[in-house]
Amino acid sequence: MTDIAALDAADPLAGFRDRFEIPDGLVYLDGNSLGCLPKATKARLADVVEREWGQDLIRSWNTNDWINAPRRIGAKIARLIGAHDDEVIVGDTTSINVFKCLSASLQLDSSRVVLLSETGNFPTDVYMMEGLAAIAPDRISPRLVEPERIHEALDDDVAVLLLTQTNYRSGRIRDMKAITEAAHARGIPVIWDLSHSCGALPVDLNGCNADFAVGCGYKYLNGGPGAPAFTFVARRHQDSVFPALSGWLGHKVPFEFTDDYQPAPGIDRFQCGTPGILGCAALEVGVDLLLEADMSDIRRKSSALGDLFIALVHEHCADHGFKLASPGNADERGSQVSFHHPEGYAIMQALIARGVIGDFRAPDILRFGFAPLYNSYADVEQAVATLTEIMETGSWDTEEFKQKAAVT
Amino acid sequence: MTDIAALDAADPLAGFRDRFEIPDGLVYLDGNSLGCLPKATKARLADVVEREWGQDLIRSWNTNDWINAPRRIGAKIARLIGAHDDEVIVGDTTSINVFKCLSASLQLDSSRVVLLSETGNFPTDVYMMEGLAAIAPDRISPRLVEPERIHEALDDDVAVLLLTQTNYRSGRIRDMKAITEAAHARGIPVIWDLSHSCGALPVDLNGCNADFAVGCGYKYLNGGPGAPAFTFVARRHQDSVFPALSGWLGHKVPFEFTDDYQPAPGIDRFQCGTPGILGCAALEVGVDLLLEADMSDIRRKSSALGDLFIALVHEHCADHGFKLASPGNADERGSQVSFHHPEGYAIMQALIARGVIGDFRAPDILRFGFAPLYNSYADVEQAVATLTEIMETGSWDTEEFKQKAAVT
């Protein structure tokens, strides 16, 4: 029998839990959807609102350095993902940033016309491909292939490959280095969506010779609901391309208010409109907190939490119809564990009603995320104990739990 | 001599000033760039952070109705701009929303290829036109003409006309009804940028038979720095077009996570990624406050403040080289007054150093905005007194004041 208390006692990250608001009695395994609130965020936001906005007003763009927030926070995120500090900029949403990278990558070789991705990728990524292609349907085509057919689809028509490093449903990690190499061998740049990777596992964009990447601020970066996202563009591409979303803050001299667009040097051209300062402020606190931790400790604990969860579900719920949807090997898995179950939706609602929060992903996946900064081994034990009780009593089987909410 | 105290005493909006944080001793005439902080925003944001995010976490998408924030706040803004409540949605930035409307409008008549706007429009609007056209350069062309040549440029090639109702430099108001009619007579839809109109003067989109509009949340709506923007799409167009920025939250069934994009019915398809909830919460407080006021009172006071400012500058600074850049007739002017002056930048810095905050717009414009909810007639008097003193003493003429900051 695993000694859970000993695992938590020996956890080098255990001290981080107290830096977050964790509601009493809650086992929160949904940090891969919305990360918990860092305690420091409250005071930081109050200061931004009351002093920076309330008192300093428009002057804050200069005096409180609002204008550099996207660059400054981008440089911090760069340290989490193996990028140089001038390769990452914060702003807009992951969807919008996918579009920026897609439109930019099309400029690298105008003879190539196919936007390639895989079925089962996070939907917004492939929807943005469709939207971009619809602007120039005679020239640009989106193409989706099964995940196992990506390599054979890398032909001379492909302008760019868009993939997610850690799959949102299964948690399976793509081999970023091998795929990037294979694509480059065919002259194809790659856009990596790091939404379910950044802050949860070591990412080495430059070690993989990556071209473009995007990622989400509100999951493992703990930046708050709908936090700004980020965009990575390798130095070697920055001055060769520009985003079709060519807004004024990506201009070389935005405050000269000229009639013609001239992209700023470097990563700055990937800015578009005015950054949301409240969202940036909250995101920066979350990123600063992550930077205090050692990413190899995070990864080690993430793997251990997932392994323990799988082992306990197999031990206690073997007869209840769960089928592992994630890789059993932690090296192939991000910081989540997913199970198929035909009654997954109702089971998840029953768990949530008992204070164990994961989420459901259609059609049949129960998803449990592990945020090593604040989740404990005791959280995992409690989650499986609750799941076991729900399955043994059949208490999930009610109309109430089967009633789908607006957001699942 | 004007009795300033009597004007303030008779002001039906005077009570609103106390609903805002106004820093002691400051005359803030830059609400057309960043509106002041409503006092109620502080508690609202603390609640969103501490309870909704901190305690309720991911459940807030349903229980605190985060998922409907863009629609709910959009419906409130609709009341300020003459729209139906299902015609406006909040999210992203003005720049991004211009792109959504441009890409959508191109779908109305695929034989038309020109994106038309005017020189001197707010730069981001024309930059977004350029970016969109660069995706399909063989098909789409941006075209800028001088403001007075817009009518003759409305030919059969024009796919869409993009104009700003209230010019950001001069404050001149375009005749939305007449221009929309003229464009429609040539089969051309119009996108109106309301950034310097909404919340400052009555706007009647449906009365003008408008097609598309966008607007800014952080100016007269007092939504905070980088607040989410909004998009208006007339009911008659909503189901015929979709934005090229076709993100997952604009999908018909986002939580089914399908591989193919199917736009949601109605205005919802103009959503893209996950909305920034902190920004939405602050914006909603600002909009709610505006909805308590009578728009005709706002317009009347706005005109009076501007007229008084012009009269006092003419009276006291006639010899100092200022040239009115705004219409003298208040009916043709938004809620700002601008003056040309060759030393405008340094003069504005000197004003700011003395607690009178306006802003500078290249190449030579001093811009003073009037927010009728919190600016008083005494503010106007104090601003001109300070300007007069600066000009009479020549105290603007220093190296410090001529040194340009990152943000002007």
Notes on the protein architecture:
- Two copies of one chain form a homodimer.
- With 408 residues, chain A is an alpha/beta fold.
- Chain A has two domains: 4-30 and 294-402, Aspartate Aminotransferase, domain 1, CATH 3.90.1150.10; 43-292, Aspartate Aminotransferase, domain 2, CATH 3.40.640.
- Chain A has 13 helices and 13 strands.
- The first copy, chain A, has helices at residues 4-9, 39-56, 60-63, 69-80, 94-105, 123-135, 176-185, 235-238, 277-292, 295-316, 344-353, 377-393, 399-402; strands at 27-28, 88-90, 114-118, 141-145, 158-164, 190-193, 212-215, 230-233, 323-324, 336-340, 356-357, 359-361, 365-369.
- In chain A, the strands form three sheets. Chain A has a seven-stranded mixed beta sheet, sandwiched between helices.
- In chain A, helix 2 (39-56) runs antiparallel to helix 9, helix 4 runs parallel beside helix 9 and helix 5 crosses helix 6 (123-135).
- The radius of gyration of chain A is 22 Å and the shape is globular.
- At the A-B interface, helix 2, helix 3, helix 5, helix 6 and helix 9 of A face helix 2, helix 3, helix 5, helix 6 and helix 9 of B.
| CATH C-level label of the largest domain in chain A | Alpha Beta
Spans of chain A of 5+ residues with little confidence (pLDDT < 50)? none
**Strand order in the sheet with the most strands of chain A:** 2-8-7-6-5-3-4
| CATH T-level topology of the largest domain in chain A | Aspartate Aminotransferase, domain 2
Number of strands of chain A: 13
Strand content of chain A: 5-15%
CATH superfamily of the largest domain in chain A: Type I PLP-dependent aspartate aminotransferase-like (Major domain)
Oligomeric state of the chains in view: homodimer
CATH architecture of the largest domain in chain A: 3-Layer(aba) Sandwich
Q: What average pLDDT do the residues of chain A reach?
A: 97
Number of helices of chain A: 13
Largest interface: A-B, 99 and 99 residues
| The number of domains of chain A | 2
* Shape verdict of chain A: globular
Q: Main sheet of chain A?
A: 7 strands, mixed
Q: Please state the CA-atom Rg of chain A, rounded to the nearest Å.
A: 22 Å
